[in-house]
Amino acid sequence: MKFSSKKLFFENLLALLILFNFASFSFAASAILYGEVTDDGGDPYLYVWFQYGETTAYGFETLRQPKYGFGEFTATVSGLKDCTTYHYRAVVKHQNYDDTKYGEDKIFTTPCPSITYPAPTVDLKVNGYDGSVTIPYNSSAILSWTSNNANYCVASGAWSGAKETSGSESTGKLTSGPRTYTLTCYGLGGSASDSVTIYLQQVLGAVAPTLQKKVRNLSDGQTQFFDSVYADPSEVLEFQIVIHAGSGVQNLIVKDILPEKITLRPNSLKIDGISTSGDIVSGISLGNLSPNQTKTITFLADIAPANQFSFGQTNLTNTATIYWNGNSLSDTTTIIVKKTAVAGVATGISTGFDHSFFKYLFPTSIFGLVLVWLFRSHIIKWEEWLDGMKEKYQKFRAEKLLKMKIVKARTEKFLKEILF
């Protein structure tokens, strides 16, 4: 009755049992099956295994594994067919009686044999040459390319967009350089890239633009801009960028990268003294500048508070960059942030005698002289005190020796009584 009750209790619980199972496989026509017992019905001694096959009739079983209690279990099956879908399910029963239960049916598909595709190739030329060429100012070049085992190509660098797997294209008239053109072609076997670079012959009389970056410390009342300034934490700076167009530039963009611990103050950007919207960090467009035209950009920034700096000196570098027609130019300025110790607190190492030495030596000497005088004058009865302490010690020692002799005599008497 006890056994059947236990068995009935297990069957009722097992009706709620869920066997989670799934499979992972490799490319060797084998698979690892996973299952999990979530309730052992009160009897932890179990057998677990899997059934598998190409249909729900299964037809194959893994070896039965003894298992103690609930938890995960696995089994590896091999000799499977490629590109084939298999059904499988987990199975569990108690070791001591027949109460087999089954998990839900799951499926997995073995991989198909891999197919190797040839790698693509691409050959990009400029005016019929590989690598690089130099062409006259304000002239064009012809880009031509061919590819193999490619489905499509994508241009990058000085050109962009999707391209055919073979073809040709003009660069248009170039007034700035060098310019690098890259073409990447993609196929089932991967991708391949090729690049060419075009240089322009120098034109006598042409003047490149210039860039000047400076800063001043408004908190210190500075009225001029400098290449570098000293500042304290939490102070306010004003940055200045001066651009001279030289022989003229087109599509001019200005970016200013502020270093960590310096933050751009909102709504402080000005161009030629006029407030302007935009984000100098991300970049602002100045369009085209005429020959010898100058643009001056200013903005405010705040230095981080003192708790973000270490004691001593921290150098922060700010970089401004202009971009035009594939060219760029940068300039930097330096902010030297000083964090000093709190006033009134000092640290140091003594290197010799100072006032503090005499400050402590003098009172100590006076105190010693006074003690000597008191002893010699018998105002402090030092000798009398010593004689009293000596007498007390001798009395204590005599009493202690007497007690030890009494204990020794009693011990000897006790041992004699026991032994004899």
Structural summary, described in words:
The protein is α+β, with helices and mostly antiparallel strands and 420 residues long. It folds into 3 domains: 2-109, Immunoglobulin-like (Sandwich); 121-200, Immunoglobulins (Immunoglobulin-like, Sandwich); 210-339, Sandwich (Immunoglobulin-like). It is 17% helix and 43% strand. It has helices at residues 2-14, 355-376, 382-419, and strands at residues 22-25, 31-37, 45-53, 60-61, 65-68, 71-77, 85-94, 101-102, 106-109, 121-126, 131-135, 142-148, 152-157, 161-163, 167-170, 179-187, 190-200, 210-217, 228-231, 236-244, 249-257, 262-264, 270-271, 274-275, 284-289, 294-303, 312-324, 327-339. The strands form 6 sheets. Strands 3, 4, 5, 7, 8 and 9 form a 6-stranded antiparallel β-sheet that branches. Strands 18, 20, 22, 23, 24 and 26 form a 6-stranded antiparallel β-sheet that branches. A 5-stranded mixed β-sheet has the order 11-17-16-13-14, with no helix packed on it. Strand 13 (152-157) and strand 14 (161-163) form a beta hairpin. The longest helix has 38 residues, at 382-419. The chain is flat and about 130 Å long. The two termini are 74 Å apart.
